[in-house]
Amino acid sequence: MSDIKNFDRMFRLNGKVALVTGGSRGLGLHTATAFLLAGAKKVFVSARKNEGEQGIDQAVEKLNKLPVSGKAVGIASNVADTDAIERLVKEVQKTDEKLDILVCNAGATWGGPFDPTPDWGTQKVLDLNVRGVFNLTRLFAPLLEKAGTRTDPSRIIIVSSTAGTTVPHVGEHGTIMYSVSKAAAHHLSRQLAVELGPRNITTNTVAPGFFPSKLANGLIENLGGQKSLEDHNPRKRLGEPEDIAGVMVYLASPAASYVNGEDIAVDGGVRYAAGRQSKL
Ligand SMILES: NC(=O)c1ccc[n+]([C@@H]2O[C@H](COP(=O)([O-])OP(=O)(O)OC[C@H]3O[C@@H](n4cnc5c(N)ncnc54)[C@H](OP(=O)(O)O)[C@@H]3O)[C@@H](O)[C@H]2O)c1
Cross-referenced InterPro entries, in alphabetical order (predicted)? Predict the structure, then answer.
């Protein structure tokens, strides 16, 4: 037998405090749900809107009905705006002097043909997906540092996309600057792994393929609909909540303490499937 300590706690988040940006719906809500089910003490969920069918309030209400002792707390914040991020840090500090897990998940996309690309589309995507993520990590680093230890570092998880490593869509429904922003997110994560590792903070990237969501549904339709994308995927389906839950809990848990600067694609392997179209 080898000397593996605390295996029963290896995939648990007992007692941890997390913040998930874009936690009101989609992948962020799957992540917040999974963290609470894995034993987290508190999960802050942030997004811009409190009200409405997809706002923070309904998400927090659902999360607080889970059969767990951990609690969800909502904070409205536009994480493309640096002043708003500073206020978000202060809000968290009102109740918690430390943060164990920061998930930079809120993201924006813009798609359309190359020549008439409006500059506001590029700005929106870069402000949230790159500059906003950088500022979130920079301004939360002191709270993360307080929570991290040599054996159990705090975690930054950046939600990128397989679009950060492939050239997924050009032409009429092109998403060039989205793809570029996600490539930047991948490299930001590697930089932070080296910068913040000595402060007992690890940084990794999760790169999803298609998961039905408000952000993705328009593009899924433009590309021929869910069935056609499923047919093209080696696993014959799109992503489901459990697929994100598993990788998020793993990266946030003691099992991933020594994983730093990695990106994990969660796409059923479809990013490698170009070869199936080959006529050679
Ligand atoms: N779904 C996919 O197929 C897919 C694939 C690859 C990568 N991703 C990435 O996964 C992440 C989540 O996407 P999703 O599909 O779950 O999208 P979604 O369902 O549309 O959710 C986006 C979340 O981000 C919040 N948000 C948007 N802009 C914000 C801002 N400026 N400040 C704060 N919060 C903001 C939204 O709430 P408010 O609107 O109220 O602010 C919402 O909570 C994104 O980074 C996306 O690029 C998704």
Answer: NAD(P)-bd_dom_sf (IPR036291), SDR_fam (IPR002347), Sec_Metab_Biosynth_SDR (IPR052178)
